[in-house]
Amino acid sequence: MDNRTTTSHDRDLAQRHAEGWTFLVEALRDLPTTGAVAPSGRALARLLTDPVRHRPARPLNVLEAGAGTGSVTRSLIPLLSPGSRLDVVEANPRFASRLRHLVRTHPALATRGDQVCVHHTLVEHLDVDRSYDVIVSGLPFTNFTPAQVETIMSRYLELLHPGGTLTYFAYRGTRYARALAAPTEARRHRAVEELLAHYHRRYATGCWSVWGNLPPARVWQLRRPETKRHVAAGTLR
Q1: Global model pTM greater than 0.85
Q2: Residue 208 falls inside a structural domain
Q3: Which residue segment(s) compose the domain that 111 sits in?
Q4: Using one digit for the tens of pLDDT, what is the confidence trace for 155-187?
Q5: Alpha helices per DSSP H over the chain
């Protein structure tokens, strides 16, 4: 291993260490909206970004929602073909600032930084005039109310181009953890899972477990039908 490789490896380790601390601080500050105590691991990030990786080499519009400190964003950036666009949405102001720094300093964006734009907002408030081929969601759905989840999922389907793909993840075991908490929390969690199950039955094309992540996670892949018509979760009965 030469000095350049060592330096790059050390820089990557330092970056991940700093990212981990930033994530932990924000989790302690507001766990319900942060959704975890550690950034997504590499295996989880790879599964979430596979729809971009496996698309034909043509310009794509990609949206990442709930990007956190950028662990998945860093996996997405090298996959962007010339002419592609990545919109990154993050509601946490400190995470959004860190993401903007990532975009400014990422070597792959040195001559094409306009390919990536960070939006400090909620995804349901995102105001754009384009649809997306791929949406990658890092939002902690099981921390939200069913109404919030339905609003977000409906917005995803509005933003997806017909035939477009949505990937999102959920941590395994949260149902059992909530069962030990207040009964109202357990009921809310169960209602969110039932709502998401409607979307799975309608749109899911794959589901995988990532046991090596901290904590272990399950990745879902959903696809909007080619037709412009789709059914909202609230009507799936």
Answers
A1: no
A2: yes
A3: 3-229
A4: 999 999 999 999 999 988 766 666 566 788 888
A5: 3-29, 31-34, 42-53, 71-76, 93-105, 146-159, 174-179, 183-203
